[in-house]
Every structure is written in C-alpha cells, then in structure tokens.
Amino acid sequence: MAYIPALLIFVLCFLLSANANAQRNHSNVIHLGSSLSPAANRTSWLSPSGVFAFGFYQSRDGFAVGIWLINQTEKTIIWTANRDDPAVSSKATLDLTRDGQLLLRTNEQGREVPIADVTEPAASAAMLDSGNFVLYNKTSDVIWESFDFPTDTILGNQSLSAGNSLVSSVSQSVQTSGRFRLDMQDDGNLVAYPVNSSTAQYDAYWSTRTALTDDVQLTLNRSGLLFLQIGESGVHVLAKSSYSDKNNGIIIHRATLDVDGIFRLYSHHFGGNNNSSMLMEWSALPNQCQVNGFCGSNSYCSGMGNKAVCNCYPGFDFIDSSNKFLGCYRNFDDNACRRSKDPAMLYSVVPFENMWLGNYPYSVVQMIKKEDCRKSCLEDCNCGAVLYGDDDCTKYKLPLIYGRESENTSDTAFFKVIRENIIAAPPPVPLAPKVVTESKRGLILILAISFGFISSLCIIFAIYSFIRYRRQVFGYRRLSENANLGLTEEFTLRSFSYDELEKVTCGFKEELGRGPFGAVYKGTISGGNKAVAVKRLEKVVEEGQREFQAEMTAIARTHHRNLVRLLGFCIEGSRKLLVYEYMSNGSVADLLFKGEMRPSWRERVKIALDVARGILYLHEECEVRIIHCNIKPQNILVDETGTAKISDFGLAKLLLPNQSRATTGAEGTSEYSYWAPEQQKNALISEKADTYSFGIVLLEIVCCRSSIEVKAATADEIMLSSWVYQCFVTGKLDKLVEDENVDFVTLERMVKVGLWCIQEDPDLRPSMKNVILMLEGAMHIPVPASPVVSLL
Ligand SMILES: *[C@@H]1O[C@H](CO)[C@@H](O)[C@H](O)[C@H]1NC(C)=O
Ligand SMILES: *[C@@H]1O[C@H](CO)[C@@H](O)[C@H](O)[C@H]1NC(C)=O
Ligand SMILES: *[C@@H]1O[C@H](CO)[C@@H](O)[C@H](O)[C@H]1NC(C)=O
Ligand SMILES: *[C@@H]1O[C@H](CO)[C@@H](O)[C@H](O)[C@H]1NC(C)=O
Ligand SMILES: *[C@@H]1O[C@H](CO)[C@@H](O)[C@H](O)[C@H]1NC(C)=O
Ligand SMILES: *[C@@H]1O[C@H](CO)[C@@H](O)[C@H](O)[C@H]1NC(C)=O
Ligand SMILES: *[C@@H]1O[C@H](CO)[C@@H](O)[C@H](O)[C@H]1NC(C)=O
Ligand SMILES: *[C@@H]1O[C@H](CO)[C@@H](O)[C@H](O)[C@H]1NC(C)=O
Ligand SMILES: *[C@@H]1O[C@H](CO)[C@@H](O)[C@H](O)[C@H]1NC(C)=O
Ligand SMILES: *[C@@H]1O[C@H](CO)[C@@H](O)[C@H](O)[C@H]1NC(C)=O
C-alpha cells in the first residue's frame, strides 16, 4: 500500500504541472470583458514570449492602437489599427466586449470604432508570438487576424497576396499613411510606386520584374526568407536573413516598406535581460534618390545612400522650408510668358550640370544644337526646363517630378528663370522679420497673413496641378507591359525629319490605305524591327507649327489600349506627317466586309466593347475631351492580339472646312451613313454624334455587313438599321446572324444598345459609359423605339 501515497504525489504533481502549464497559456488568452486604456494599469496585452505587445502606444498628440516590438531603442511599430484615424486621448478604452466585439471607445460622445470587423461574435482573443493578433470564435477557429490587414510591415509567416499593398508610414513615430506604396500586383510583379501615382511604368521605382502569373504572393517565412511564392512550387527569393535558428534567444524578422520608400528586411534578436539588437539584412535599393517622389515636385534629390536631401531647382523656392519633401514653387510670375509677344526676352536660362529630370518630358527633339535647344525652351511657354545631352533636346513642363543628380556628366539641364532687369513677379515671401517696431506690427501682421494666404494658395495650386498633371499624362500601364520599350517611344513624341521618314518608308513605297487626310504608308523604325504606319496629311488647314505641335502633343497624351498610339510627327513647311504604331490585322472594315474568314461571334463582341471603351476614353477620360466625328469601321484597326483600336482621333479640327464633308468613296459606302442626323445637317454636334456612329458600327459588327447594302436579298434588308429594328420587333434576331456559336442574350443586348445609339434625338442616345454598362449586362436596357432611318 506504500505505492498509494507515491501515486497520489505523482498525480498531484502531474495536476500541478498541467495546471501551471494551463495557467501560463491561460494568461495569454484575452477573455471577453477585458479592456485596455492608456490611463489604466494595463495599456497592452503581451504575446507569450513577451516580444510583441498589442495595445495603446503614444502617437502624435495622443494614442493609437497597434502592435509593436518591445524593448527596442527605437519604437518598432508593426501594425496600427485604422492608421489614418485621428489619435485618441488618454481617456479612450479598448474593449473586448461581452458580446464579442473589439471596440475602441474614444471619450468624445462615447464614439465606438470597431478594430476588427467580425461577422460572428468573438469568444476570445490572443496576441500570438508570431506578432499576429487574432480573434477566436467559440470553436477556437480564427475569425479575424491582424496579419490580413498589413500596413507597412509583414512578419515571419505572413504573406501579401495579389491585389494587396503595403503603404509606408509618415515617419518612424507617426504611422499614418505616408508617401509610398508597394503593390503585389495581380500580374505577378511586386512594384513600388509613389503612393498616389498611377501604375505607369515610369512611376515605378522598384520592381521584382517577375510578371509571371496571377497566382503570386509575397511571403516572409519564419526563418527570414523573403520570397515570391509563384503558384504551388515556384519561388523567387528576394532576400535571406543571415540569422539562423541556432542562435540563442528569439529572432523576429520583418520586411517593411520604410518611411523613405525603400523596402527592407530586418532581424531583431532578443537575448533576454533587456538585451535586444536589430540588424538591417537587405535593402531593395541602395540609394534614397532612386525612389521616385522622394523629393516633391520642382525639387531634386542629391546625396548617396540614406543621406539624400532635397533642393529646389533654380528659379524655385521651398513651399515649406521646414518640410523640404513638400517640393518647391516657382518664385516668379509664370503667366507673363503667355501675355508676352516675345517670351524669349523675359527669361534667361540657368545651366545645371549632372542633372536628370525624370521620365516625363513632353517633347524630345533629336539632332539639335545646344544653343537651339536652349532657345526652344525660352520661346516655349510650356517649357520649364530642358535637358541637353547626346544631341537630344528633352523638354519638361512644370511641375518637374522625379528629378535627381546624376553621374552622367554629358547632360546639361537648363532652367528658365526671370531676367534680373524685368520686374514681373512679386518678390518671394519674406521670412518673418526678427526686429519689429511697435508701429509696424499691424502692417506686418496683415502682410504676414496675406502672404500666408498667398502661399497656401500656391500650395493648393501646386498640389492641384500636380494631381491634374499626373492624371493627364499617365495612362494606366502595368510595368510588365512594354518593359522593353525605350523612353522616347513610350511617353513622348519623336520628331522626325522628312528625309528620315522617306527612308523609314523606303520612299513611300507601300501604301496601306487612303483616308480623308491623305495616304498611309508602311515603314519600319528602330533599325527595321518596329513597324509603323506613316500618315501623310495632304488636305489639312495651314496651321502654325506651334499649334500643330500642340495638337500633336495633345494626341500623344492620350494613352489607352483601344486607341492607336501616335509615336511621332514631322513638320517641314507644308509637309506634315504622323507616325503611328502599325496594326498588323488591318481595319475592322476589312475584317467584316472583305475577309474570307469573318471574325467569330466572340471576337466581334470583344471588338464592339474595345471600340466602346476607346470612345469612352476620348469622351470622358482624357485631358481634353475629344469628339472623334468620324467613327467608322475603316478607322478601327486591329492589332496582332486581336485588340481593336480607334485611329484618326483628334484630327477632325485639322481638316479643311470643305474637306470635312468629303466622302472616302473607297468602299463605295457613303461616310454619311455613319454620321448622326445633326452632323449631316451641319448643326452643332456633341459627343452623342460619336454615339450614333458607334451604334451603326455596332450593328455592322453584329451582322457582319455594311449599313447599306444595295445588293441585299430583299428591299427590307437594304438599310441595316431598319432591318435590325424589324427583326427585333418581330423577335427574329436569328435572321441577323449566320454564325453558329451566337449567344442570344448578348445578341439581344447588342441590338438594343445599337438601336438606342441611333435614335434621332441625341438626348435619347446613351452616354458611352452607359453603353458599356449595358453591353456588359450591368445595366437594364429598356425596349428601344424605332430609330431614324437616314436615306442619304
Ligand atoms: C501551453 O503551451 C505550451 C507551449 O508554450 C504547450 O506545450 C502546452 O501544450 C500548452 N498547454 C495547453 C493546455 O494548451
Ligand atoms: C491600478 O492597480 C492598483 C493596484 O493594483 C489599483 O488599486 C488601481 O485601482 C488600479 N487602477 C486602475 C485605473 O485600474
Ligand atoms: C530596456 O531597453 C529599452 C531600450 O534600450 C529601454 O527603453 C527600457 O527602459 C529598458 N528597460 C529596462 C527595464 O531596463
Ligand atoms: C467558428 O468559425 C469556423 C470557421 O469560420 C466555423 O466553421 C465554425 O462553425 C465557427 N464556430 C461557431 C461556434 O460559430
Ligand atoms: C503560419 O501560418 C499558417 C497559415 O497562414 C498557420 O496555419 C500556421 O500555424 C502558422 N505557423 C506558425 C508557426 O505560426
Ligand atoms: C494621396 O491622396 C490622398 C487622397 O486624395 C491624400 O489624402 C493624401 O494626402 C495623398 N498623399 C500624398 C503623399 O500626396
Ligand atoms: C523558409 O524557407 C526556406 C527555403 O524554402 C526553408 O529552408 C525553411 O525551412 C523555411 N522556414 C520555415 C520556418 O518555413
Ligand atoms: C524586456 O526587458 C525586460 C526588463 O529588462 C526583460 O525582463 C524582458 O525579458 C525583456 N523582454 C524581451 C522580450 O527581451
Ligand atoms: C547582448 O546580445 C548580443 C548579441 O545579440 C551579445 O553580443 C551581447 O554580448 C549581449 N550583451 C549583454 C550585456 O548580454
Ligand atoms: C547615364 O547615361 C547612360 C547612357 O546614356 C544611361 O544608360 C544611364 O541610365 C544614365 N544614368 C543615369 C543615372 O541617368
């Protein structure tokens, strides 16, 4: 019987130890009814190992709720809840309420802000050793975790899946959204951009260039390997921590998009006894000046490594000299240029060596002398600065963005400044004077207030123009596309000489077609590996060189996948030529009416949507609204991937007045059949004229036939629009299409949209935005009335 006490002791010990274990684990479970407050004894909940804390930390003029690493010389914040909300006061509380909500209660009128958006009530919460704060439901399944909502950092065992971003913080201590973002794009690329920029190639300043598949995510694993997980098995390693698991103590890895826009990998080593150390393991870029937007507009970046500084260009002053990242404004009156007959007299230029002005010039002229380059900027009111190097003259508008000092000593930048002897501008805003006599105080106060007002206007204007400028110039373009294209081809117009174009087209040998403007020839540039279409404008108004160039620049700014891109131009006296990208599959007219292999139903539906999107862009999305005035199948070209693109846009106003009523005659079809009634009557037209033309084209695409077919089987069928309407009201849409694989729901949609587009009253015709919604089936389409039948 002696073994009984032993057994008892054993059982007791077992229970005690189990109890101790449970106790320890228990202490890290956060129960319903728990709360934290900056003013209370408990301001945070720790993870079991004590490395991570979740709770209130001091931020700005109050407190924020987040997760941080403890015992760090510099507070290392990993995550912040609702980071862009205002800071809360010390009276705020964070409650895991009895009904299973995690709420931040601020003291102002008892406002309640949910920290975690949960669909079912939580049963408990925990701050895990991985740095993940989680909420559990009754069955201990995780129903919410902070790892799903990263701010600027990912930790070991955390991933950033496609479509998500990290956004840098304003500063080390203020975790609100800062100036940069890192996108895990769904095209497989991990790309860093300035936070509010487009995804245009030249806004990006760092990329993994992985563009492989859409199934990619960024992952940092527990042993500090930072990699892109591609599909099931592919791995693209970005960095590896040098700390290995055999080190003593706890190691935490984190990858952060830092305040300066650079993505870095860090390791933290916790040795106990308040001995912790941090190591920067990897940096995506070695130099802060490589970060686009590190300096604000009209300022440039200089310096190496992590010691970059921002300076204003000549002729500019800081918007706020206490925050040099905000950029600079021009310290003289810019408008004088446009008022002046001889702007070159007003300004001089200041040369600046070793400067790079960014990727967004508005004009590149090749083979030109330095002096002519300098002069061309002085005479051009749009020009804020030019860069001259290798006989290329590259002009930039304000605001100048992404500029930095460069090691390329062959380049010289010239900045326009006002001439000293001309007093055209108010003096720059003076700093507050140090000594103020009593009598002048009032006056100075008034001056200070007005200057304050003026400078805030300047800031607002600068920001507005910056945003506007960005919206104008940058089309939506993923980095992965055209990554191999050079700068001049991508975003600027190239100016060609006539001789050059003669060579490019082998003496205008191969004619591709003829339009109202003249003939189009095939050519090749870039040493014969890029096909282009050269359009010789013959019947255009004699405009000044500058107006023509302005027109071309406006066209060049349109960037849309459903518009044929203008690559360059040539003006020599009365000779005017335009160089476009070459469309290898010809026009939609060829495909629909001539081709032996007509496009399939699916291809036709895609062409119709492509055209609609191109027109929508012209009408609503580009800088200057453009009414095409001449939408017809001959003007819609198809590239090698089968994407339809609209051409000849923006040219309508260059046509001679009598020319604009000409017919092409090439196919024997009157151009009038695409014209809206108001256009035929030469009345005032709106965007709805293009809607009408689109309607006719749409019906042609649906039926694969021309809008007027004299040789039709029956008289009813001659006019396509009345024939379609007749089939529609009699419910015999199948008569319109010969194809086998027609989807009749889409067919009916397309027919109804087409009939709405060709209503006589322009107000009845839908906008292109609605046309697209209706074609996509996202918008109900009422039954259309009989359209006008134009018999011209
Ligand atoms: C408590 O945590 C330890 C490790 O931290 C684990 O081994 C043990 O199983 C846990 N106990 C319970 C009751 O969950
Ligand atoms: C803090 O703790 C002390 C002692 O444990 C207790 O008396 C006091 O009420 C607590 N204060 C608050 C605000 O909870
Ligand atoms: C631990 O180290 C941190 C940073 O060096 C310091 O702020 C903190 O006061 C230290 N804590 C103790 C208890 O020494
Ligand atoms: C807890 O969540 C899991 C996963 O969402 C779910 O399957 C389970 O039914 C939930 N349990 C309760 C008690 O709601
Ligand atoms: C890592 O994350 C996965 C899910 O993302 C989870 O199932 C696993 O438990 C985590 N591992 C650790 C050690 O936290
Ligand atoms: C980005 O845009 C948002 C919303 O327009 C604005 O609040 C924010 O200040 C902008 N950030 C920067 C760095 O310009
Ligand atoms: C991290 O990834 C590396 C390479 O795939 C692997 O060797 C290591 O075991 C991983 N570590 C963890 C904790 O998953
Ligand atoms: C933080 O510092 C305290 C006080 O020195 C120490 O007891 C604790 O172990 C440290 N925590 C970590 C995770 O290093
Ligand atoms: C602190 O830890 C580092 C390694 O991380 C070690 O080299 C150093 O000796 C430790 N210092 C103390 C006082 O323990
Ligand atoms: C310097 O010039 C070379 C050749 O023109 C170019 O490849 C390089 O990108 C330039 N470097 C910078 C920093 O602009």
Quickly describe the structure:
It is an enzyme of class 2 (transferase). This protein is of the alpha+beta class.
Describe it for me?
Helix 12 runs antiparallel to helix 14. This protein folds into five domains: 122 residues, Bulb-type lectin domain (Agglutinin, subunit A); 125 residues, Agglutinin, subunit A (Orthogonal Prism); 127 residues, Hepatocyte Growth Factor, CATH 3.50.4; 88 residues, Phosphorylase Kinase, domain 1 (2-Layer Sandwich), CATH 3.30.200; 188 residues, Transferase(Phosphotransferase), domain 1, CATH 1.10.510. Helix content is 23%, strand content 27%. It has a six-stranded mixed sheet with strand order 36-40-41-39-38-37, with helices on both faces. A five-stranded antiparallel sheet has the order 29-35-32-33-31. The protein binds 2-acetamido-2-deoxy-beta-D-glucopyranose (10 copies). One 2-acetamido-2-deoxy-beta-D-glucopyranose binds next to helix 1.
Summarize this structure as a short list of keywords or feature phrases.
792 residues, alpha+beta, Agglutinin, subunit A, Hepatocyte Growth Factor, 5 domains, 6-stranded mixed sheet, 5-stranded antiparallel sheet, 23% helix, binds 2-acetamido-2-deoxy-beta-D-glucopyranose
In the sheet with the most strands, the strands line up as 36-40-41-39-38-37
* Estimated radius of gyration: 33 Å
> What small ligands are held by the chains?
2-acetamido-2-deoxy-beta-D-glucopyranose
Number of domains: 5
CATH structural architecture of the largest domain: Orthogonal Bundle
The parts where pLDDT drops under 50 for at least 5 residues are 7-26, 422-445, 466-491, 656-668
Q: Remind me, CATH topology of the largest domain?
A: Transferase(Phosphotransferase), domain 1
Question: Can you count the helices?
Answer: 15
CATH H-level superfamily of the largest domain = Transferase(Phosphotransferase) domain 1
Taking the alpha carbons of the first and last residues, their distance comes to 118 Å
Q: What is the top-level CATH class of the largest domain?
A: Mainly Alpha
> What can be said about the biggest beta sheet?
6 strands, mixed
Task: Estimate the helix proportion, in percent.
Answer: 10-25%
Average predicted confidence as pLDDT: 80
The gross shape turns out to be globular
Strand content is 25-35%
What is the SS-derived class?
alpha+beta
